[in-house]
Amino acid sequence: MVTIKKAAELTGLSQKAIRYYESIGLCASSARSDSGRRLYSAEAIRRLEQIRYLRTLKFSVREISGLLDAPAEELHTAMKRQLEHVEMQLAEYRRAQMGLNAALSLEQSTQLADSPRMAVVAIDLQNDILPGGALSCRRILNILPRLRELFAQARSLGIPVIYVCDCHKKGDTELLLWSDHMIEGTYGAQIIEEVAPLSCDFVVRKSLFNGFIRTDLQSLLDMLNVRTLLFVGWRTDVCVAQTAIEAFYRGYHVAIASDGTDSTSQREHEYGMSLMQINYGFEAYPCSQALHALLEACDRPGKDS
Question: I want to staple 263 with a disulfide (CB 3.0 to 4.6 A). Which of 62, 90, 227, 269 is the partner?
Answer without folding.
Answer: 269
